[in-house]
Amino acid sequence: MCLEPGSAPDRAASAPRPADGPAVDPIALEPVDEVTVTTLIDNSFDALLASRNGVERPTRGLGSVEAPLFESGRTEPGLRAEHGFSALVRVRRGATTSTLLFDTGVSPDGMTTNAGRLGLDLGDVQGVVLSHGHFDHTGGLAGLRRRGLPLTVHPNVWSRRRLAPPGVDPIDLPTLSAGALRREGFDVIERRHPSLLVDGSVLITGEIDRTTEYERGMPPAHQARTASGWAPDPTVIDDQALVVHVRGAGLVIVTGCGHAGVVNIARHAMRLTGVDRLHALIGGFHLSGPYFEPIIAPTVDALSALAPALLVAGHCSGWRAQQALATALPDAWVPSSSGTTYRLTAAA
């Protein structure tokens, strides 16, 4: 996916849409007392990372498995890391706690394996949200076969997509099947517009306004099947984020890949809710590779101006972006790793 910038028509196809002024239909997002975000799957796992205030790293010695070459016959592999993303999100209002799953990783058993090794019971998940339809965020649904579990998606999540770099045979990307998911018992809910879940305390953004001049989406090689054939799919219009308002602290935003652009996402969430403070931004920022690296600098500048208290760039963010963010926002930046829990509580 990391190709050179496209032609003028390709760039025009992903040009930003104006979104000036306050939201026409503002979202009344109920504040919460606490939100915890546990990264079940990410591209990396570092067993030596230390916990700190509000950031809980898993203890060593997770997941004892058979290993006959050791004297004890067992070893402890830790947690899985894979090119995918999944987060368990728990929100607490007073004495009531609700649990959602945001994305499910790429492999059928990676997310559930890590949850088991962390001692987390996915049986208390009340709903699943998919950030978009790419297979590195949806593959773990196979491990969640439970009748009637709500699954919130954008209608374009079923899009057939492929990678077609010049001079290379196209590579079809695995596509979700709505029929198969319904047969497995998922209650599929398609929403193009914002959704409020958990008694109004969790916002799913729906389609995101593209307002920056530099976050222009995917390269021309990323294509989607249309009625007239294959065409560039720069916007990945099904890209959406999860937003929680922590009382007195600001917005906590969880992204999957951030195909809409993390600055667009943050500004869109703030505009929708009327909350003018970004407290935390966690997930994939999609700044990896030569096609996206030119927008690292303006992205870092914009996020620096928003001044979040916590910034966790994982999955598809790339090492160059992480280095730049760590340099610009050293007090906010935290390295991502599978199994980490971020705990954000209401201001006193």
TrEMBL record:
The keyword Ribonucleoprotein does not apply. The keyword Hydrolase applies. The lineage of its organism: Bacteria, Bacillati, Actinomycetota, Actinomycetes, Cryptosporangiales. Pfam families: Lactamase_B. PANTHER family: METALLO-BETA-LACTAMASE SUPERFAMILY PROTEIN, METALLO-BETA-LACTAMASE SUPERFAMILY PROTEIN (AFU_ORTHOLOGUE AFUA_3G07630). Residues 1-23 have a biased composition (Low complexity). Keywords: Hydrolase. Residues 1-25 are annotated as: Disordered. InterPro entries: DHPS-like_MBL-fold, Metallo-B-lactamas, Metallo-beta-lactamase_dom, RibonucZ/Hydroxyglut_hydro. Gene3D superfamilies: Ribonuclease Z/Hydroxyacylglutathione hydrolase-like (3.60.15.10). One of its GO terms (molecular function) is hydrolase activity. Residues 86-160 form the Metallo-beta-lactamase domain. This is MBL fold metallo-hydrolase.
